[in-house]
Amino acid sequence: MTHKVAPSILSADFLNLEADIEMINRSEADWIHCDVMDGTFVPNISFGFPVIKQIKKIARKPLDVHLMIVYPDKYIDVMKDAGAYMMTIHYEACLHLHRTVAAIHDAGMKAGVALNPHTPISLLEDIIHDIDMVLIMSVNPGFGGQRFIENSLRKINSLKEMISKRNLKTLIEVDGGVNVETGKKLVDAGADILVAGSAVFAESDPEDMIHRLKSLV
Ligand code: DX5
Ligand code: ZN
């Protein structure tokens, strides 16, 4: 299976979001990555559920929602109503991760677990069987346009090993500082989904950049 590409709309034009969603619809992108930030879990505030609901009305690709918030378990039903396909919560934000993952599944969504750059893969040993995706943060979450942390490649290698040893189908998504150069290394290391914000939206032809990211082998 070839890797997926999920443009992050954090770097889109908020004055003309519809045009950017239509661009993603036309493109080879697989998912639309939506970053929700609360100003507490991360030092930034982005957008929330009303915006995601509007996006859902015109999106022709699944919504991949990355919640950088404390207490994500409070918003599972809201997230479902907003139309999320994948609900990704942070390991660091969940006291009862197993319960939260089960509740996401009960609501009918896929469950992803994100790890901050300092959080080791080994902490997933007892939850990896229950989740659909692991999101490796390759920058400290909160902002677009940051530099890729090289150690993320090592984390992908260990995660890949953990997943294949157990014969699981858990997907590996990488988010932060992804461009054609880092993207190539990530795909080689075993990433299944590349999230890219500034690399896509800073281009004069974002659709072509999505094509280039999708063509990495
Ligand atoms: C950062 C967000 C990312 C962000 C990535 O906290 O989770 O999804 O949009 O931006 P780039 O691709 O510019 O690093
Ligand atoms: Zn993200």
- Global structural class: alpha/beta
Number of helices: 8
Strand portion: 15-25%
Per CATH, the class reads Alpha Beta
Strands, total number: 8
Bound molecules: D-xylitol-5-phosphate, zinc ion
User: Could you estimate the helical fraction of the residues in percent?
Assistant: 25-40%
Task: Please list the strands of the largest sheet in the order they lie side by side.
Answer: 1-8-7-6-5-4-3-2
Please characterize this protein's 3D structure.
With about 220 residues, the protein is of the alpha/beta class. The chain has one domain: Aldolase class I (TIM Barrel). It has eight helices and eight strands; from the N terminus they run E-H-E-H-E-H-E-H-E-E-H-E-H-E-H-H. The chain has helices at about 15-25, 50-60, 75-80, 95-105, 150-165, 180-190, 200, 205-215, and strands at about 5, 30-35, 65-70, 85-90, 110-115, 135, 170-175, 195. The chain has an eight-stranded parallel beta sheet with strand order 1-8-7-6-5-4-3-2. Helix 4 links the parallel strand 4 and strand 5 (about 110-115). Helix 2 runs parallel beside helix 3. It is globular, with a radius of gyration of 16 Å. The mean pLDDT is about 100. The site of D-xylitol-5-phosphate has 21 residues, from strand 2, strand 8 and helix 7.
